[in-house]
Design a protein that fits this description.
The protein is mostly beta strands and 263 residues long. It folds into 2 domains: 113 residues, Beta Complex (Ferric Hydroxamate Uptake Protein, Chain A, domain 1); 103 residues. 13% of the residues lie in helices and 38% in strands. It is built from 3 helices and 14 strands. The protein has a 5-stranded mixed beta sheet, with no helix packed on it. The N and C termini lie far apart (124 Å).
Length: 263
């Protein structure tokens, strides 16, 4: 009886060891490509403020529009507009345009004369990212940002290779827009060229209720013409250092229409 017990225990141990060896399976090694997420730290103004980031898909859809129309139609922000192509200022939390900072890649675009910024002069074709920060925490950007901050970024880093996009729109009353974007990237150099050209006659018909008999008239002296160029170059010196150069030149010509009583 004792001999049988020893054989049984020995057989069980051998069986257990063989099962453990059979359970080992060869594993495959998969190499994943590196994913680099690059962003600007200035987007995080405050954790308690209300931030609105406009999706890139909407920015692409409004490439032929000014920034004023994009913000007015896609965010909870009031834009005071004075006619097509006219003055367009922002109002956050009841504040004026001089109390809302307009930043482009960290540069304040507010006028040093009156503190405001005409958003109808900024083409969406030049912008890649737009975020609106509501709240007084935006005062971290200066005393001219107690109402909030509008942060716009034009990315300098582009994927390797060459890419081009062209936007052409035509509307009523002589409204035409043409935009071109060229991008080239290699191992240590990224180049981006953006140009646009826009014209509008704005010669629409209206009933002049300020004149006797309420005649039907056409709006005179309301034409608009603007064009610009944005050139961006990035040189990756080493993994920890890079040099970015941006050049923005733009011409804006807007006629001032007369009052209805002066027609």
């Amino acid at each position: 009886m004792l001999l049988f017990q020893k054989k049984y225990i020995f057989t069980f141990m051998v069986l257990g060891m063989s099962l453990a060896v059979m359970a080992q399976q060869p594993d495959s090694v998969v190499s994943l490509r590196e994913v680099a997420i690059i962003s600007t730290p200035m987007r995080q103004v405050s954790t308690t403020s209300f931030n609105e980031q406009i999706p890139p898909s909407l920015i692409a859809d409004y490439a032929s529009h000014p920034v004023s129309e994009l913000i007015a139609r896609t965010s909870a922000v009031i834009i005071n507009q004075y006619g097509p192509g006219g003055l367009a200022t922002i109002s956050l939390r009841g504040s004026g345009s001089s109390q809302t900072a307009i930043l482009w890649n960290g540069i304040n675009l507010q006028s040093p004369m009156n503190g405001g910024m005409n958003l109808s002069q900024l083409p969406v074709n030049f912008i890649d990212e737009i975020e609106v920060n509501h709240g007084g925490q935006g005062a971290q950007q200066g005393n001219s940002a107690i109402g909030g901050v509008v942060q716009m970024n034009s990315r300098a880093d582009v994927p390797a290779g060459f890419a081009a996009s062209f936007t052409q729109t035509a509307g009523s009353f002589g409204n035409y827009f043409s935009g071109l974007k060229l991008r080239y990237g290699c191992r240590s150099l990224s180049l981006t060229t953006r140009v646009f050209y826009q014209t509008a006659e704005n010669n629409f018909s209206f009933i002049n209720t300020a004149q006797y008999g309420k005649p039907l008239m056409k709006q005179p002296n309301a034409a608009l013409k603007q064009y610009g160029l944005l050139q961006t170059a990035l040189w990756q010196i080493n993994p920890n250092q890079q040099l970015i150069v941006r050049f923005w030149i733009q011409n804006y010509d807007k006629e001032l229409p007369p009052l209805m009583t002066n027609l």
